[in-house]
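From the methods appendix. Each design record in this collection lists the tokenized structure first, followed by the designed amino acid sequence. Records were kept in a plain field format so they could be parsed without special tools. The example shown here is representative of the layout used throughout.

RECORD:
FOLD TOKENS (336 positions):
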């Protein structure tokens, strides 16, 4: 039988660079409350959010990603031409096809990198990092750019009490590539499609022939049954995070930081309590000024901790992300 050459990659993969884009416009709770009969106090107490950022017309999913990616590639000491694959985690690129990833690769000058979008909602960044790590170790790419980006303000109903105050915009990117030691632990991930309806767009795309305008009105906006999602995340996700720590071969005492998806400050607190995080573990709380930016929230929160000097390159951080699907993913990474 004729032998085929199989793929060969590197033994270890890690995060080589990080970049972010925070939209210019800061939106305090006071700007949101009047349309949803709410109050600054309710939003702070129930979610921990004091303000968020909404992107303006010129700050698109693609442009925010390109800016964050340039920083990540530069920090990795690479040029865009050295990127072999671009993975973009997003649910708010408004074209189903072509993928935002191809446009981002083109604008970066990363062509002819392989390019695709990853639809795993708020878990998308951790899904992307897991796949990138396997690509580098499997040999299908040497350097993978993973972007988490959302412009949720485009698909949020400003009069919806359960989503208007929570969702926000931004982008974060990392470069995953070869490393001297393991920089990304095995992922623990999964889905629970029985709860498909909890965070959703209301309708399928309008059919080609004679769509009923009433049936598709507002179909693009996100709806969320917040409380069941809150309970699922608060109780089930700590177990997933615990498994990720075990699969990384470390103990909770060896962690330096906990960087969960910035869904709700109370979910972060509940997970930290369930994991019995020691007091030296720094907890990311970027949601206070950034809101819930879905796939972008972990790289944004990671960047904030590094910029504030609360953690340093090489520190071990537990990541966990969860959202619409329902889907989830967790891993331990060495910070870039
Ligand atoms: O990002 C990926 C996944 N998403 C998440 O992880 C988000 C998970 N969910 C949440 O973070 C929370 O469910 C929310 C922050 C969205 C809501 O908080 P909650 O504690 O679950 O509130 P609730 O929906 O159970 O409502 C509690 C009360 C109700 O009033 P009564 O029945 O107790 O009198 C609501 O009518 O709060 C009321 N309420 C509001 N009040 C002021 C609901 N929304 C609002 C609002 N402003 N926006």
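DESIGN:
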């Amino acid at each position: 039988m004729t032998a085929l050459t199989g793929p060969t990659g590197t033994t270890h993969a890690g995060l080589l660079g990080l970049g972010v884009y925070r939209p210019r416009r800061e939106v305090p709770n006071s700007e949101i409350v009047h349309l949803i009969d709410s109050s600054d106090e309710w939003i702070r107490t129930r979610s921990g959010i004091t303000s968020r950022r909404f992107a303006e017309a010129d700050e698109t999913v693609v442009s925010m990603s390109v800016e964050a990616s340039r920083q990540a590639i530069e920090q990795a000491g690479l040029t865009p031409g050295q990127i072999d694959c671009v993975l973009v985690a997003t649910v708010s690129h408004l074209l189903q096809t072509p993928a935002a990833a191809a446009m981002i690769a083109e604008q970066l000058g990363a062509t002819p990198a392989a390019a695709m979008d990853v639809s795993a909602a708020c878990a998308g960044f951790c899904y992307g990092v897991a796949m990138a790590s396997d690509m580098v170790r499997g040999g299908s790419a040497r350097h993978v750019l993973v972007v988490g980006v959302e412009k949720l303000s485009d698909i949020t109903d400003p009069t919806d009490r359960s989503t208007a105050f929570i969702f926000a915009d931004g982008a974060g990117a990392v470069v995953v590539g070869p490393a001297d030691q393991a920089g990304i632990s095995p992922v623990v991930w999964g889905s629970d499609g029985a709860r498909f309806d909890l965070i959703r767009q209301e309708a399928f795309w309008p059919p080609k022939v004679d769509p009923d305008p009433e049936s598709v009105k507002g179909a693009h906006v996100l709806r969320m049954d917040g409380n069941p999602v809150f309970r699922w995340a608060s109780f089930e996700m700590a177990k997933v995070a615990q498994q990720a720590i075990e699969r990384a071969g470390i103990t909770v005492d060896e962690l330096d930081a906990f960087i969960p998806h910035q869904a709700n400050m109370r979910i972060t607190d509940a997970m930290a309590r369930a994991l019995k995080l020691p007091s030296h573990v720094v907890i990311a709380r970027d949601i206070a000024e950034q809101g819930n930016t879905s796939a972008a929230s972990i790289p944004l929160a990671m960047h904030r901790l590094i910029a504030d000097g609360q953690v340093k390159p090489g520190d071990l951080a537990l990541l966990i992300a969860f959202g619409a699907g329902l889907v989830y993913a967790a891993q331990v990474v060495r910070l870039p």
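APPENDIX NOTE: The longest helix spans residues 226-247.
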